[in-house]
Amino acid sequence: DGGITQSPKYLFRKEGQNVTLSCEQNLNHDAMYWYRQDPGQGLRLIYYSQIVNDFQKGDIAEGYSVSREKKESFPLTVTSAQKNPTAFYLCASSIVWGTGNEQFFGPGTRLTVL
Amino acid sequence: KNQVEQSPQSLIILEGKNCTLQCNYTVSPFSNLRWYKQDTGRGPVSLTIMTFSENTKSNGRYTATLDADTKQSSLHITASQLSDSASYICVVSLTDSWGKLQFGAGTQVVVTP
User: Fold this and answer.
1) Smallest CA–CA separation between A43 and chain B, in Å?
2) Which residues does chain B have within 8 Å of residue A92's beta carbon, measured at their own beta carbons?
3) Among A39, A94, B34, B91, which has the minimal tally of Cβ within 10 Å of its Cβ?
């Protein structure tokens, strides 16, 4: 059963803590993405990776970090430097990098700062 | 300012009725336009994708239209069902921003019995 999985579904963080959101895909896609979704706003790109061992900052990368050590995995760490981390986080992948390629989304992780 | 504007923000329709959602964009140059459906608490799922040369694309009861001259797109839902209750997101991609997408804020549709 192919697809993208994200875990956990819900995550609670105390101020000052770093947390890591998991994203795994078994679609054999080269490109992976992390987006943030806030109420009343469109999805915003945090980081993207065109291929394993490579990643680039998106539009709102401050306070976030990623790694891409394996093709199927693209974890996102929300650091204490991110001042307003409460949001819905979506991971996506596409067969290769490029706007003509459909992005498939995971089910999302809702992060809440206590 | 968001370069992809959707209207209305939300709407309520009776089951079995039709509705049309609007998307206006200002991004240029334009590569393709997509409509996604996002159920509450879930990831978006693609409904249609159109290049600048296409005028219409259907997916079951969903029909998207595109006017590249006026930079407008619409998504028409025919004979709505309760399962159509979701947010519908318009997404535009740029030819000079390879791989990056511009997302609208979405239209929240509620279908009532």
Assistant:
1) 6
2) 43
3) A39
